[in-house]
Amino acid sequence: MATTATMRSQPMTQARLSSRGALASSRQLSKTLRAATRDARRVVTRATGAPATSAEKRTATNALTKQDLVDYIASGCKPKSEWRCALTRSVIPPSLSLSKPFLSPRGRKKRLIDGSPPPSSATPTLTTTTRCTHLPRRIGTEHEKFGYQLENLRPMEYDAHVSKLLHALVDRFDWEPIMESGNIIGCKLNGQSVTLEPGGQFELSGAPLVNLHQTCAEVHSHLYQVKTAAKEIGVSFLGLGFQPKWSVEDTPVMPKGRYKIMKQYMPKRGNKGLDMMFRTCTIQVNLDFSSEEDMVRKFRTSLALQPIATALFANSPFCDGKPSGQKSLRSDVWTDTDPDRTGSIQWVFEDGFGFDRYTEYVLDVPMYFVYRDGIYHDVTGQSFRDFMEGKLADFPDEYPTLDDWEQHLTTCFPEVRLKRYMEMRGADGGPWGNICALPSVWVGLLYDEKALDDAEALVADWTAEEREYLRVAVTKDGLQTKFRDGTVQDIAIEMVRIAKEGLVRRGANEENFVDGLMEMATSGQTQADKLLDAYVNKWGMDIDKVYKELSF
């Protein structure tokens, strides 16, 4: 994780850009995003405020079949035959070419942080690999952040703050508004979208981009725009995974129809569903797959490693103004939200997993709503299978469209989610360095064949019981979580090492984006650990100080 000191050491963050420079950066990024949108065969991230209305009304004679639903997900495949590739030679530094993958944290820290040389026997490894020069596999990064009022630290109100911010993006930076029932609920531009979570958490869903430099530039441009508008109305943004001070009752509800339905339904299925809706923020990355086999490998590997990412990115130790006892309270909340649509879905590791099996899973997830004529209709608890047969109680003889299926896919919340791309969902919200680091570690692991092989081998003999244990235990103990004869810290070091090697082989000079993670892994100190220490030893147990510490 990039602390303030780490971020200052990164090339892109050596100094703050001037307003003129930021505007120039924003204009250049807009050109890049337009090109990315033109080149993409599909948009990786679709996050508009309301589903599209299908032009074709489905009837019994042209009703969707299950195979149509399977094919919809499978249409995300980007075959390797479409990649334009070239041979390239990469040098893997000695510090990454270590014969013993599980060095002690202390030993690795000595080499990587204090600058002392590796053993004399370590020599650079020169490898010749096939690298895609066009890199059609895209990277779509999403992040959420808490908006708060500067005068009293309370969450932003919709009328006084949120709508004004969105209108400012539209009026000043040429975004296109997203409306629902006369209210602006988001905006979009060149493959990006800004949307609202239930409690007003501001989310940027990034465009499908080619490399991590574009991702970080996109985030910078977005933060420049929202901070410029926010300052004028007396609000700012906080990079944490869980609301540190205010309760659900203190949090305004955004005027989106689906959230009204979810707010009423969530308490029926778990004790922490409303906390999830109103008091959490995350960072996610959306990634491509080339085939069903490729999807299965990436899904299984990333699902097993999701708890390690949770530990590395732990940044939600506070609740109701004090330490919560958890390092990632955001992740802990998901363990008691809704068992029908959350969890570690261990059947993914069984024989026969693929597009069809995932479709069966989603079909069994109870519905939230049906969207018709601009209105979200409450059908909570009802079956999409019944909908497929025209047997929904409130919509007799009506059949779903692919838009309905697409929306239903978004109401499933496993740690890795499959649509026409894959979503990595295990990380807490955090500062800018974290937003750049999260996609970096997953791109390094999953977009390089050798790295994917190594990551797959790392988790190959983990049992279902061990995977579930890690999912729950890391929320409290983070990198110090006990695992076999070591800790999660040992696995995190190896995970980041593999990712960095993968980034080196990509040949896009992206490997420095995970340096902060390696420093964190070797030290054992996550953002949550540092915040808890500051709370006691620096802030005088005054939670308000976190707003100064982690504001964008």
Summarize this structure as a short list of keywords or feature phrases.
alpha+beta; 19 strands; 552 residues; disordered N terminus; 9-stranded antiparallel sheet; globular; 42% helix; two-stranded antiparallel ribbon
Polypeptide structure, described:
The chain is globular, with a radius of gyration of 23 Å. It has helices spanning 4-9, 19-39, 66-74, 105-112, 158-173, 212-232, 257-265, 273-279, 292-312, 329-333, 355-363, 384-388, 402-409, 432-446, 449-459, 464-477, 488-506, 515-523, 527-537, 545-550, and strands at residues 85-92, 125-132, 139-149, 176-180, 183-189, 192-196, 202-205, 235-238, 282-287, 318-319, 322-323, 369-372, 375-378, 391-392, 395-396, 416-418, 422-428, 482-483, 486-487. Strand 10 (318-319) and strand 11 form a beta hairpin. The chain is an alpha+beta fold. The longest helix has 21 residues, at 19-39. Helix 5 packs across helix 6 (212-232) and helix 14 (432-446) crosses helix 17 (488-506). Residues 1-28, 31-49 and 84-135 have low confidence and may be disordered. Strands 3, 4, 5, 6, 7, 8, 9, 16 and 17 form a nine-stranded antiparallel beta sheet that branches. The protein has a two-stranded antiparallel sheet with strand order 1-2. The chain contains 20 helices and 19 strands.
